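Risk register update: the risk of archive-format incompatibility is retired. Evidence:
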Amino acid sequence: MHPYPAGHWMYSLYDLLDNSVFVVCFFAFWVATGQFLLRTAHEKFNISETVEIVIIFYYGY
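Archived output:
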């Protein structure tokens, strides 16, 4: 049972979140994006992985 009327955009979101294939692909996409951004930052700015982890932790919370 959805808390929103049929046709509401949140109705579609609930259906997507119930789909395990979507959830796996969604998280895989963001993990790959995060890895790409970390690799780019590491190469471009030449910062250590420890600093990257601290930045992620700081901005993640």
